[in-house]
Design brief:
The complex is a heterodimer of chains A (276) and B (335). Chain A is an alpha/beta fold. Helices cover 26% and strands 29% of the residues of chain A. Chain A has six helices and 15 strands. Chain A has helices at 41-57, 71-81, 99-113, 133-141, 194-200, 248-261, and strands spanning 3-8, 11-13, 22-23, 30-31, 37-39, 59-66, 85-89, 118-122, 144-155, 158-165, 168-175, 178-182, 205-208, 228-233, 242-243. In chain A, a hairpin with a 2-residue loop joins β10 and β11 (168-175). Chain B has 335 residues and is α/β, with parallel strands linked by helices. Chain B has two domains: 9-191, 3-Layer(aba) Sandwich (Rossmann fold); 213-333, TPP-binding domain (Rossmann fold), CATH 3.40.50.1220. In chain B, β2 (15-16) and β3 (19-20) form a beta hairpin. In chain B, α3 (80-94) packs across α4 (105-118) and α6 packs parallel to α9 (321-333). The chains are: A alpha/beta (276), B alpha/beta (335). The interface between A and B is large, with 83 and 95 residues. β15 of chain A pairs parallel with β18 of chain B, so a sheet runs across the interface.
């Protein structure tokens, strides 16, 4: 069995720096200057799942992204991790896309690359975190899909998978071809070896622009997006932050008073030995 | 597609193992609020898919004027293909202007599938929705872990869809005089189109340990700085003394000091609004703050006086979490 597998990934601003994101006071755009770009963390779990299946039954693993030209760096990193080839979809015509237009573009990119038995994605991206692209991508591709998959097994032409839900899971059997959006519980992504980095330099990386794809222009980018952004704002979360001082017993005294004032029924021995 | 519809504010009520998820009631309360904001009021409709679902009437008590039940053995367990086939046909036939769903695992999968099939927009994991002066739905969507909120509109296609995070809308309220009709919808025509690509085998519900975060008036939360499983038991002891629940941040889930990810508070975890939030040894990453910002009294203990959590706290205690926990527990026990 030779599986043709694709993994869709997204370069995102590093989530560890999101407290530095600001809104430009005049232009009302998001300023993310100086924040490094990384591969969306759970997308590495998606690649790991693909690599494990390739090792199990044979086949190829292609990584795909729709991104600005520097998306190439992320793809090279995943080639170093073990993917066989890569494809970057980049064009100004793709810009401003919501999840529907993004998933359409990815679908047309995948179709151009051939018929895949399996497509893996992460469940959500760290930046927008809408988590909608995987499920919508499956609709454009016309294949079955499962989202939020935390366990996966290949049994002949079908997959057994667990979809994580609140307080439990649902178990499914899915026929191939299929798209699977994975959670971080599924596996632990492997580290990249020096050898991997060396090999990655020679692996094929194709760049497609809008002219290379069979697309309807009105389904791309801003034009193909039924949702439109309105205003953006940074919620004001600041609280006045009174600092409790003194020795530990004095601090606890003050805390207990505040807890009771907030309506909690706290039975406690007060520091001055008066029990309530 | 035009922006004219037959009207209706729909809530897709979620059921797992025959029980309606409480987020459905939160959505109905919000739907009732939206109805008042619309230029001309539209009916609030709840749709529930399943095999047999308990306490359907509850949906009416929380504001549904019509409850559409879609019952069939094939719909017992959520399965995106079958659920989408049925809802796509139902929405196309009845043409509502708004469709709200919970941003639960099921809702976060089903809503975008419907959006793609109906070629309309879905605002994801919203923290609020309202109707603007143009009579459009405005969905407030967090990005970058909640650091930024953006308004999302869907002006040209219908229905306008949104998923809302459980817990962000606050406690739902029942209507004073419930008045509703129940409509049974036969899904067999829709289900005939199913290609049988996916088979749902079983639902497994894990036992919840301790008090659920959503119900707790006080939540004791720990972060990575708690340091060890042994120290973690101090948090559990304090929570139990205060009659509250224990919550955590992402690193604690990774360290496996908690049994279930259900205890995680934040963008990818739960949104909570307890009367009292007591946080220990957590830094206050944007992702976490997004899930706790609506709490009543926020108290934080951290040895780093510059920890970001202090900027969103009402009471700051600078000190070692373990020492403070031990002393506080001792005091409450009165020994």
């Amino acid at each position: 069995m030779n599986l043709k597998i694709a993994v869709c990934i997204k370069p995102v601003p590093d989530p560890n720096f999101y407290d530095q994101i600001t809104i430009h006071p005049v232009k009302k755009t998001i300023t993310r200057q100086g924040i490094p770009t990384i591969i969306n963390p759970v997308d590495k779990n998606a690649l790991e799942a693909a690599l494990q299946l390739r090792e199990q039954v044979g086949g190829t693993v292609t990584v795909l992204t729709m991104a600005p030209p520097n998306g190439e760096e992320s793809l090279r990193e995943l080639l170093a991790m073990g993917a066989d080839d890569a494809c970057l979809l980049t064009d100004r015509a793709f810009a401003g896309a919501d999840t529907l237009a993004t998933s359409y573009t990815l679908a047309q990119g995948l179709k151009k690359l051939g018929n895949f038995d399996l497509v893996f994605t992460g469940t959500e991206s760290a930046d927008g975190a809408t988590s909608q692209v995987p499920s919508q991508l499956a609709q454009w591709l016309g294949v079955a899909h499962l989202w939020n998959v935390s366990e996966l097994q290949l049994q002949e032409q079908a997959l057994r998978a667990k979809m994580k839900i609140e307080n439990g899971y649902i178990e499914y059997a899915v026929k191939l071809p299929a798209l699977i959006a994975v959670t971080r519980d599924l596996n632990t992504p492997r580290f990249t070896s020096i050898m991997g980095v060396m090999k990655a330099k020679k692996k094929p990386l194709t760049v497609y622009t809008v002219n290379d794809l069979d697309v309807e222009m009105d389904k791309l980018g801003l034009k193909g997006s039924p949702t439109q952004p309105g205003g953006i704002f940074a919620p004001s979360l600041g609280r006045k932050g009174e600092r409790l001082t003194g020795d530990i017993d004095e601090i606890i005294d003050q805390l207990l008073i505040k807890l009771r004032a907030a309506g909690l029924n706290v039975e406690a021995a007060d520091a001055c030995q008066e029990r309530r | 597609m035009t922006a004219k519809t037959a009207g209706g504010i729909w809530v897709v009520a979620e059921q797992v193992a025959g029980r309606i998820n409480t987020v459905s009631y939160e959505l109905l309360s919000k739907a009732c609020a939206l109805k008042k904001q619309l230029k001309s009021p539209e009916p609030v409709v709840a749709v529930v898919l399943g095999k047999a679902v308990e306490e359907i009437e509850q949906l009416g008590r929380f504001g549904a004027e019509e409850i559409i039940t879609v019952f069939a053995p094939a719909l017992e367990i959520y399965q995106n293909d079958t659920y989408a086939l049925v809802l796509q046909d139902l929405i196309t036939a009845r043409d509502p202007s708004l469709v709200l769903m919970g941003a639960t695992a099921i809702g976060q999968d089903l809503a975008p599938v419907l959006g793609a099939r109906l070629k309309t927009g879905v605002a994801a994991h919203c923290v609020d929705v309202r109707i603007n002066e143009d009579n459009y739905l405005v969905a407030v969507v967090p990005a970058f872990g909640g650091k930024v909120l953006g308004d999302i509109l869907c002006p040209n296609t219908r229905p306008q869809m949104a998923t809302l995070k459980p817990g962000v809308l606050g406690k739902p309220t029942t209507v004073s005089e419930p008045s509703f009709i129940i409509t049974n919808y036969d899904p067999s025509c829709s289900l005939q189109k199913d290609q049988g690509r996916i088979k749902a085998l079983e639902v497994v519900r894990q036992e919840q340990t301790g008090m659920p975060l959503e119900e707790a008036e006080v939540i004791v939360i720990g972060g990575w700085g708690i340091g060890s499983q042994e120290n973690w038991t101090l948090l559990e002891e304090l929570a139990s003394l205060l009659g509250g629940a224990v919550g955590c941040t992402r690193p604690v889930v990774d360290e496996q000091w908690v049994k279930s990810e259900q205890q995680m508070i934040g963008t990818s975890g739960k949104s909570v609004r307890p009367k009292v939030y007591l946080g220990f040894a957590l830094s206050g990453a944007t992702h976490h703050v997004c899930g706790m910002k609506d709490s009543g009294l926020v108290i934080s203990v951290n040895k780093d006086a510059a920890a970001p959590i202090f900027a969103v706290s009402d009471l700051r205690i600078v000190g070692d979490a373990k020492t403070f926990l031990t002393a506080l527990i001792k005091r409450i026990k009165g020994k």
